[in-house]
Amino acid sequence: MTVGILKESQGENRVVMLPETVAELVRMKTDVLIEKGAGERAYALDSDYEQVGAKVVSVQDLVTVSDIILSINPPEKDNLIKMKEGQIIIAVLNPFFNPELVKELAVKKITSFSLELLPRATRAQSMDILSSQATIAGYKAALDAANNLPGFMQMFMSAAGTIKPAKVLVLGAGIAGLQAIATAKRLGAVVEAFDVRSATGEEVRSLGAKFIEVEGARDESSAGGYAVEQSEEYNQRQQQTVHNHAVKSSIIICTAQIPGKKAPVLIRKETVEQMIPGAVIIDLAASAGGNCELTKNNEVVMHNRVKIIGRSDYPSDMPVDASRMFGKNVLNFVQLIIDGEGNLNLNFDDDLVKGTCLTHNNEIMNQMVKDAINN
Ligand code: NAD
User: Known catalytic residue: 324?
Assistant: First the structure.
């Protein structure tokens, strides 16, 4: 079995596996190919990969020879064209926002696994790229907010007077939100957080932050720990509550998302217009439309002296640990489909294999994606 590691396109600093993880893949009796220069932006040289037993090749050779292709982002069009029936690709394919790619993978009979579809079961935790990368995003978002704030995060007592600590509001207390809370607390800020899932209240409080409640949220156990869309009436009450807290905050970190859907809008333009001058909004939901009405993905917007940073790609700013965690997640997933002799073993009776599979044999395998594409 030959496994190929693609180089990510410009703007992405991570690599799907660092040499330390490739070493483990080689021990699984697989041949590992790596595209020339794939690890450079994550400080891993071709020679580091060669030392652990991988072979450095051109992208052309990699795409035509590999049985399994690994990458973080979807393959570029040029590479997709070269792929052939029966090949396997494992990546974050973002199917809800990439319907054309999904259709093409199915037409070409490529077996694709989209890592963000991995069911969130206990057994899957070691493969969960959403969790590992969200941890990084939350941490970096808090640091970036502090860097952009025109003041201190912590309380400061000096001969020049006392400066109050920054007030941070975190919207969405999932993996990224909890990490943002913990990081902002360590920097000395006063932190409050809000989530539609009441179960998060205890986690928020255990980190020393205040939990803001808006009663009457729809919470569905069938959503596998995720949030679901809320009623219009609830959304309006929620926006009012968020508004009341937002106008007193100097930092807002937005992380609220609903898988496969546009991110909920929690901060209206009118709210931004009443915020403290110099306040910073970091919107991690930017790539799914953003939690702030004024967010623009991959842009910094200044509105009424408030800075709105729309970024969902913070893990790329921390490429070494992000690639380390991502690679380990992928290795654990690959172990589900390669047996002890290095042979392919696609067992669709395994919930994790089935749940993560996007396309196989001409078919879109994931029902949610299929419904979204057909509607
Ligand atoms: P996510 O990125 O989809 O969403 C982030 C947060 O936004 C969630 O906490 C969600 O409830 C919240 N949110 C959605 N709509 C909102 C709204 N209108 N207002 C306020 N908040 C809103 O989720 P995530 O962080 O990836 O994970 C969510 C949960 O999934 C975790 O907290 C955990 O319980 C569960 N989980 C389980 C496993 C596992 O068992 N393997 C792994 C990871 C996460």
Answer: no
Nearest CA-CA partner of 126 in 343, 314, 327, 337: 327
Candidate from 255, 261, 312, 314 with most ligand 1 atoms within 8 A of CB, to mutate: 255
- Reference 106, options 118, 119, 93; nearest CA is 93
Please count the CA atoms within 13 angstroms of the CA of 348 that sit on its side-chain side: 10
Amino acid found at 59 = V
Q: Hey, how many other C-beta atoms are within 10 angstroms of the C-beta on 308?
A: 25
| From 51, 60, 125, 231, active-site residue | 125
Would the CB of 152 count as within 6 Å of ligand 1?
Answer: no
Calculate how far, in angstroms, residue 227's C-alpha sits from the geometric centre of ligand 1. Answer: 6
Query: By three-state DSSP, how is residue 293 classified?
Result: coil
Task: List strands edge to edge, sheet with 68-70.
Answer: 55-57, 31-35, 2-5, 68-70, 88-91, 111-114, 357-360, 363-364
218 is catalytic: no
Per-residue pLDDT at 4: 98
pLDDT, one tens digit per residue, over 176-235 is 999 999 999 999 999 999 999 888 999 999 999 999 988 877 766 656 667 778 888 888
Confidence at residue 322, expressed as pLDDT on a 0 to 100 scale? 98
What would the two tokens of residue 38 be? 């794939």
Would residue 314 show up in a list of annotated catalytic residues for this protein?
no
Which residue carries 């991690």 as its tokens? 284
The 10s digit of each residue's pLDDT in 242-283 is: 999 999 999 999 999 988 789 999 999 999 999 999 999 999
3-state secondary structure of 158: strand
From 120, 234, 261, 266, mutation site for ligand 1 pocket: most ligand atoms within 8 A of C-beta: 120
Token duo for residue 81: 């064209």
Question: Is 234's C-beta closer than 6 angstroms to any atom of ligand 1?
Answer: no
pLDDT of residue 260: 78
pTM metric for this prediction: 0.93
Residue that the structure tokens 């749940």 belong to: 355
Known catalytic residue at 43 = no
Closest-CA residue to 282 (of 184, 158, 154, 212): 184
Is residue 126 among the annotated active site residues? no
Q: Which residues of the chain have pLDDT under 50?
A: none
